[in-house]
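Batch job 17 of 40 flagged for manual review because the log was empty.
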Amino acid sequence: MKNKALIILFFLVISIPAFAQDNVSPQRKNAIDSLALEKVRDLGKYISIIGDKKTPWSEANRVIDRALELFADGAMMGVSTLNSKEIKYWGIRTYLERLMALNYDKVTIEWYNIEYISDLEKQPDGRYVGVITIYQRFEGRVGDNLVYVDTTKKDITVYVERKETQIRGRLIGFWDVLLGDIRVSETMP
């Protein structure tokens, strides 16, 4: 995982000049889009691990900490059920801890059809913002019995923002992708 992060950091560092000048080439934009989609896929994997009742408590907490690194401060997760029209929003840590504590013997969460629905648009503060849509299938079992299942369409806000890090005493600027609010747009059986 560290090698993957270093490769991504290296790629972002070498792509800075064109992006920093607002001359985002289609190739660089595609690279940033790919990174955003990869972070969304990583979150999907983390959610699946956290929701799995076979995951040891200490491992689930470690994965929660990793998942939190994907998000901008203050991001919220929308939660819905077929039993209510109300959509509740939780802070990401609270959502993940609640997911870990669900009263099912087995939880299966699958994300699919992950795609951009809006292009990255530059904001007045210099960040770029886009939206990625995913479908989440949730299954809860008690014993071998499937007691709850739904599919939720969710929209994930994606932020691309300028950051700096120090490497060998030299300040290096790069663009990072952070996930924002995850909003429920539809819940179906």
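Reviewer: the log was empty due to a logging misconfiguration, but the result itself is present. Strands lie at 76-81, 84-91, 106-122, 128-142, 145-167, 170-188. Unflagging and moving on to job 18.
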